[in-house]
Fold each of these.
Amino acid sequence: MIWGFIMAKDKKVEQITDMDVDFAQWFTDVVVKAELIDYSGIKGFYIMRPYGYSIWENIQSVLDRKFKELGHENVSMPVLIPESLLQKEKDHVEGFAPEVAWVTYGGSEKLPERLCVRPTSETLFCDHWQHVVHSWRDLPKLYNQWCSVLRWEKTTRPFLRGREFLWQEGHTLHRTAEEAKAETEQMLEVYADLCINYLAMPVVRGRKTDKEKFAGAEATYTVECMMHDKKALQSGTSHYFGDGFARAFDIQFTDKDNTLKYPFQTSWGVSTRIIGGIIMTHGDNSGLVLPPKIAPVQVVVIPVATHKEGVLEAAQKLTDELKAAGIRVKLDDSDQSPGWKYAQHEMRGVPLRLELGPRDIEAGVCVAAKRTGGDKITLSLDNVAESVKSLLDQVHNELYEKAERNLRENTFDAHSVEEARELAEKGGFVRMMWCGDEACEIKMKEQAGVTSRCIPFEQEHIGDVCPVCGKPAKHMVVWGIAY
Amino acid sequence: MIWGFIMAKDKKVEQITDMDVDFAQWFTDVVVKAELIDYSGIKGFYIMRPYGYSIWENIQSVLDRKFKELGHENVSMPVLIPESLLQKEKDHVEGFAPEVAWVTYGGSEKLPERLCVRPTSETLFCDHWQHVVHSWRDLPKLYNQWCSVLRWEKTTRPFLRGREFLWQEGHTLHRTAEEAKAETEQMLEVYADLCINYLAMPVVRGRKTDKEKFAGAEATYTVECMMHDKKALQSGTSHYFGDGFARAFDIQFTDKDNTLKYPFQTSWGVSTRIIGGIIMTHGDNSGLVLPPKIAPVQVVVIPVATHKEGVLEAAQKLTDELKAAGIRVKLDDSDQSPGWKYAQHEMRGVPLRLELGPRDIEAGVCVAAKRTGGDKITLSLDNVAESVKSLLDQVHNELYEKAERNLRENTFDAHSVEEARELAEKGGFVRMMWCGDEACEIKMKEQAGVTSRCIPFEQEHIGDVCPVCGKPAKHMVVWGIAY
């Protein structure tokens, strides 16, 4: 065992960059070495390998079930948008047109109008609704789409900023503003639940400032997470559009009172970016650490001394038993050494490892090692599935607590721009009062190097004035450096 | 009841074209009126509305489970392919380059190389494998991707021929040719199983002629189905590539004997086209008829005389009971008349309707009407879920038998080109011997108006010579007019 442990250590040291030396390089090493990603021949386009894609499938499964429970239906919209359609909503086109990919030829024929590969699909949903929504009986429309979108970014990184990324985009249309607003809030809460209860990522819920909101939205709500390096990652957003798009696309319905009205709209999305968030929240110098609820492999069973009679059979039996209990388990019976396997599955972030050797079998036990560390634990092979489930819950809780401590201990209050700058340089979130003027927000960027992450729902009165301009403060804002 | 029935009839007559008068228009009417599809602003790009997309989700669920049981893993490849990558395999690029959509601008910047929106992803998988496959230990790679692809078709129709369509594309890489060939055959059988046991569509399994095979394949296998109008629909294909792509992309691995070898490759796909097949196989003049296994709504419960006390409650109770038994059931408690509802859910192809009125409730029964017709059936409310499951199986079997009869009664043997022409004009599949020369295949198209659908696995010796040229016959071929 000692030998295996040392081998594992050696392997790690030579394989990935120390996260405290170069966090960006550590991240790149992890996504490649854990086989989440391969680079394609085009900048900013990534191949999601089976292990990476499987994380996404698990996230999809959680969200898709929740969306449907709340009455949403999935649809499929075209991948291309005519330029004229994209231009119908003024703010929206200004936000997206500079960063879309344009299709100009179909086969050998030059197209009469350029078509962009969708960067988001508000315009497509509106165009469709304009065809099919006529009466209050046709509302609400509660739609969602799982797809990929393209945004021609200048700097790119796997998961965090791709020219292509996968996401879900929810789009809903409602009779009243109140109903649409409630939907916006409800879906933000679905995202918060995903982060907290499935990904073990604590969140700050809040509203974006006008400067940071989605192109075309009246209000954008966000869940912001703090990464290991104390930077912020926007992990899910929910937008309230009012009736702006409905007016631009001439969507009207006959209401119960027999008058024509414009409906109210929302959209909300979570993307594969959140996998980047998982990596940067929980990962360590041995590689990936996956929250058990979305880990493709929750438990790896490693037989020790496989040449001894009965070891492989016992390992198979243990694996089958866990599988039957609904646990995602993998038996590693390859011909590599146990030490190599330990390092390999640590790199891949498997939450729990079970070791099983001849003496364990004789004693009717196996030995569990949590990816979150701590002493190894001897588990009775009787009722092992229950013990394993309980250890997986424990791993989830330990991950959440560690991340929550990181957020708590690195959130500071500032009462001057200078103080904000010093705190931001140290790393972390800065809470500071704000007057609501965009000018002060721009100054914060210029002078303190931070952007507004959100106006948290949970407000605290930490001062009377905006420290930037001295005018009366309207909100407490969380500032930080964002991915 | 009589009144409801008449209303339903009236509604149908005014709503959709008679399928025996104009089958193409009937098809278009059904996809629109059953709310499967809406037209987008771009020719050949369709919106799959919730009801249509839900059929696809049910098909996905069947296939995805089966793929995974057989050891396949899902991945995500880029949506764009550099022109130089597409050109690496000669036959492949000749087949696809004329019909792809080209991205030439990213934002305002003209791209140094054109990128096509993927028409299929063989080249992307090969490029990735070239990076990651080094040893026999890395094989097999058993991958699948769910995505949309683009092909710039001239004539387009919903489901049957879109410039964009959704599909799954399986791509696998193997140590030996035998293993790859076995995979090709296995996956064709998965498709046959989908058609027969889930979609109630009988199939002819066979191999495509060289003229009809996939661009770049050594062999293409197909399941062909006969539609109501006796035309053929290719419903799933599986391709064996040999090592042609591996050589073109320089994918090599060190085998167990320590020598460098080229691996062998397959791909296989089913697309949303198969939904067109379901519609054209089972639909009738009342609209869509959905096979129960993939119907989004398997059972609709319609309360009759809802103003009477206890009716809505009893209908809700019945609905809940069926739902608890795992049946996809919908209660239609809207304020429309029962007759309108009957017609509406017939149009949408719901396999089973349950009517529940005050007298039924008193008698402890409900009344079942199968979408496939026949007398209404009185079901006891005790054990109703079991009765309903049995009726759903019955609907499946009735659909399969009807389609199988259509295939059997409209498949004919021909012994001359003239006879083949006459039979084809009458409608149906024509079985005829063939020498194996492409020249004769072209003559069959010119003189009999048919193309080769496949060389069936189940061969019969119906003659010694190829009736086109008189030379010795090699195979029996099924000929027909295809979608």
Amino acid sequence: MIAEILCVGTELLLGDIVNTNAAYAARELAAIGINVYFQSVVGDNPSRLKQALSLALSRSDLVVMTGGLGPTYDDLTKETVAEAFSLPMELHQPSLNAITAYFNRTGRVMTHNNEKQAWMPKGARVFQNNYGTAPGLAVEQNGKRVVLLPGPPREMEPMFHEEVIPYLKSLSDTVLLSHVIHIFGMGESMVEDKLKSYMLSHLNPTVAPYAKEGEVQLRVTASAKDVEEAEQRIRPVVGEICDLLGDVVYGIDVGSLQNALVQKLLEKNRKIATAESCTAGLVSKRITEIAGSSQVFECGIVSYSNRIKAQVLGVSEQTLEQYTEVSEQTAREMARGVRRLSGADIGVSVTGIAGPGGGTPEKPVGLVYVCASCDGFEEVLELHLSRGRRNERENIRYLASSNALALAIRALEVL
Amino acid sequence: MIAEILCVGTELLLGDIVNTNAAYAARELAAIGINVYFQSVVGDNPSRLKQALSLALSRSDLVVMTGGLGPTYDDLTKETVAEAFSLPMELHQPSLNAITAYFNRTGRVMTHNNEKQAWMPKGARVFQNNYGTAPGLAVEQNGKRVVLLPGPPREMEPMFHEEVIPYLKSLSDTVLLSHVIHIFGMGESMVEDKLKSYMLSHLNPTVAPYAKEGEVQLRVTASAKDVEEAEQRIRPVVGEICDLLGDVVYGIDVGSLQNALVQKLLEKNRKIATAESCTAGLVSKRITEIAGSSQVFECGIVSYSNRIKAQVLGVSEQTLEQYTEVSEQTAREMARGVRRLSGADIGVSVTGIAGPGGGTPEKPVGLVYVCASCDGFEEVLELHLSRGRRNERENIRYLASSNALALAIRALEVL
């Protein structure tokens, strides 16, 4: 099945918002084996919308549309699709009930034009919206399918995942199943090099790498007649790859470094505390993004000045004088200090030079020390994170925080 | 001039990356008055790329393309455009020199296929790439123009801003100039309501609102024969709007709350320190995003546990017991405590319930107290930030941090 994605909205055309819907839909479709050949964006303009839809229907079997399902006169997606398929519009009573209930629940007044959102092309399959008023829908004619989804990502994404994916899967008699291997500490080209023969020789499951912000993810995807068979195909391959790559693999299907860390802390009933200089709260912010982190995160100290390093964290004046604040020794004393101060099981620290100012020939921008310290484990990493790119400061801080999280995961193995 | 944006790359079609290039180019084009009617994405596939380009040229005067300028055989954008315009390819010696110099500078080895990046359609205008190897270019024929840019945003964005915008401006004899009014603490619909007559009656300058993550920005744009005249048109309108909206305006062209805060701190030579509970480092992380913040940011304490609130920040046991950690009193003592601890001029604190767990009927998820304290100013805000949306935890934390930054800006007015 060949698909394309057509997003409707003037705010996209103006660049006021980034089109995350297209990426989300594309990723979800790829994950179930549907090929996307084109993506397009068109404004809330009837004739150009019509033109774009008719082009999409002429070259694809499935058109996934987002946006233009709102209550106002310029929301035209549904009507344009009905016209293309020569379908009359009719009131869909369950949707009207759901919209009315939504307004009652959120304590807002329903206006007359909201009723428009409950009108559907005759014969449409309706997808419920649990996070807003506009239902989604699918229509089909002569083997051509159009799926229509609301524009706001917080409505579109759950609807896509919970309702559209099962609908599309039901059209096929094979299942596609993926597991993701999360890697930190090895670059994409090195991973590819180590797994080249795997990626070329394996067609089922396939092995596809994806690099992002200093990490590499390997998606292992099998197609089979049912989930059990797909699992049986995937499991040995995931096992072999993990053996081959060793301890740069920090988890399977764990989502992110911070999630892997928090889950491990919860499992082992351990607490963590952070002492940050150049990342200035980014490590603690990432850890506490995870719901439930309050059970495992004790405290964080952002010690920009040497006074705080000494006074709150207990870094010795001598260390600061002899080695400066950007040094292995200071990182070590910061991690120990925050652990002592907080009573946490693991102390993690980051100190370095994020730039753009502050670098010297001996200690250039991008030099960062990261330490994790707990009973039975203490390690400092010296990192050189400058890549000469734009947003250097942001990149250095992000990579430094990722290294701190990854080192804490390794420390936990010992505890 | 009618434009469209055509982005080339299989990683976009697969949803592996979000198409920020399209949004960036659209925003830059809109800012100089060029209308974008379509955006499309196509993979690294010769026949579909050709098809997409010929469609774009049939309906637009200007096609902005990104991606497919790399050194490998599947990078085909330039060749496809040359074919569409029936132009031969020729070696562009200055580009070859620049590419060679780039490899020498970054200490990497230049391979033979990098030379491909220096071949251009005959007569092309070449844009230099200061952040990578692929030059950009523009070709023109019979009033149709195609601009080709490299795919990586860190290369594409500076090239667009520094070279493509001046090129496109040179095609027109009017200039467009914008100033942005930054607003925090008033919703988009309220802003629109107050300025409705402005937005409708003013055609030059135009006034356009844009809401994002709890903030509203108003873009005031004038078209004129030169910059001076445009400034003269804009200035009185910006002044009137600021008077009308009052102190919810936190700056003109300041970029963000954190930038406005850091610039004000630098101006006044004052220092700030943060004490965070539910935001857990997000406030300090945002402040220290700004280059130069190390001169004004003293320290941050992330006090998740009550023990740290008492021990490090000096919040009294009695306050914690009587009012709990999520209370006006605790927020106040946290702000005072971190100020005392650090010696900073302003202490800012955040304490609240970000969820999903931890809420009670009296203190529900979304209840947040924010305090700023300095000589002559101390204020606590009680915020109710739950909106019943997905990513509730992230939203609550972000809005809480924005409120803390905005309150610190207000405190600075007094200092």
Amino acid sequence: MPRASEATIIDGRAIAAGLRESVAQRVSELRSSGRPVRLDALIIGGNGAGEVYAANQARTCGKLGIDYQLHVLGPDTSQAQMLDAIEQRNTDGACTGVMVHLPLPDALDTIAVQSSIAVHKDVEGVNPANIGGVIYGQRTLVPCTAAAVMHLIESTGVDLQGANVVVVGASDIVGKPVAVLAMQAEATVVSTNIHTDDLEGHCRQADVLIAAAGVPGLITDAHVRPGAIVIDVGINRVVDQETGVERTVGDVDFDAVKSIAGHVSPVPGGVGPVTVAMLLRNTLEAAARV
Amino acid sequence: MPRASEATIIDGRAIAAGLRESVAQRVSELRSSGRPVRLDALIIGGNGAGEVYAANQARTCGKLGIDYQLHVLGPDTSQAQMLDAIEQRNTDGACTGVMVHLPLPDALDTIAVQSSIAVHKDVEGVNPANIGGVIYGQRTLVPCTAAAVMHLIESTGVDLQGANVVVVGASDIVGKPVAVLAMQAEATVVSTNIHTDDLEGHCRQADVLIAAAGVPGLITDAHVRPGAIVIDVGINRVVDQETGVERTVGDVDFDAVKSIAGHVSPVPGGVGPVTVAMLLRNTLEAAARV
């Protein structure tokens, strides 16, 4: 059935700007009552891209009134030294949030490092206790990408209770946590993966379709029910065969899907900027609960 | 399509006996190398049914070579006293497993109490970090009922990778953890709840159907695909209208379903005894990892 109009584009940049504004307001309130709001980030030195990202992060935090301390550790930092560095942040009353820039060198155990971050300072939501808390219905620091996906869905005004939510991809950091959050919202949730039979059939039943498989263009108009909400979590680097130019695309064939979906989030400019904003919101939440 | 034969009944009592035997063997090995295997259970006194259960538990542990200490606390135990009692167990090197008998009095915060159990001694898998660890693919102490459900499914020999698993009911302690475990096994997982549209249609697509809604007789032959595996997690007390006798029934209309399913677990005698055995297995696992 052809639709009279195209999908509403979910503007992740505008939503992120709104989140930052609200965070800045609440940070200001906390600070005026004398409360600390400080994010401590740990990074293994010599990671160029990571250091550029951290510098941007420092600037953004500054704009929002969040203190930021970057701790640069040497490239041969041992597991014990890393855990000790985190423990210092965990026990420092002036530090309200802790995060570790990835990737870590092979010699370090990433999950053990993440699990050592104090649950109430874990602003990326990478300590297993924080996602486990979601299952038990606790108000916890939710993994940023999963929180961003839920925020974009909610921005459309859809009622998730009883809605059919289909999650394409079951990764540990996105697909599974998003599925759990949708269960918590009382949706009917279908978690699919590369072994799923009849992916198209599952997807066509979705009121809300979340693409988090890491496969460029996997989701086409054939997967989408007219009027559905489509959230694209994919961030794939591809080289344009005609121009040779590298660009970032999602898991959704945007041009095909926008003619049938009710709402669709673009890549770039959808989940990405909101994920970054969610780190700031978690940083605020962690500070507010101290 | 009528089937030539009835479903295979999944014998939870026999499976539990096998688990206990294997636990006893491994406990014996640990102890012969001088390692402690001790479960400490905390209970608020004056709870008659709970104390009977604890006495049974002590006897079972004794048979398997597991030391058992029951700590009975007064009915007006404060939250701080309860947390202190747990901390003593957490830091006692001779104690390898800790559990708290529910229900707790209203004055105590159950989730805070459960979250205070050391992750590596949490033999019931109630600390959020343990179920969160499942999402991140860690080998953790899995909540006992969810672990029992997975064990019964695996006992049929089914390959879960790519199988359609439908979970009816999305409770925090059973439905959600089971869904996550099935995702971890690379199944396509459908989580349904009381708001789900067309529950029957979802269920009829299931290779494995898990009934955990707490509604007697909810699942009938109309919900089951011929040859499917049906696991009944329901434990409902009902009064027989003819005889007035109270009895325990599951969520599955067993007599109707056994003529169409490939495998079905009964109530009683299915998930229940295996859940009890899983506590013993978790107790062994916790001791083995010290």
